[in-house]
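Section 5.1 Outputs to date
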Amino acid sequence: MSKRLFKLIFTVPHTSLEVCKQAVFSAGAGTFAEGKYTKVCFETKGTGQFIPGPGAEPAIGEVGKVVKAEETKVEVQCVGKEIVVAAVEKLKRAHPYEEVAYEVYAMEDV
């Protein structure tokens, strides 16, 4: 029986892109075909926006003010739930933001 596929999507400032990618790759994310392909991902450049609220400790910007940051959205597939769980844990440790913006989706084979 083949393992279930998941997609991990996260955004990260350009300056922390490689560190965060290496973190999720070290958990096994982006590895396919029994290791024949590794460090597979898709990147999209864009601009993120947020307002840090009271009590926040933002890595960039100031509480109460709109922050716009040049970021990269990274999409990476994970083979097996244990891989995506480990990848998210490592992403959270490597990412510079207080709250990491990420999504995880179970994928269907059609």
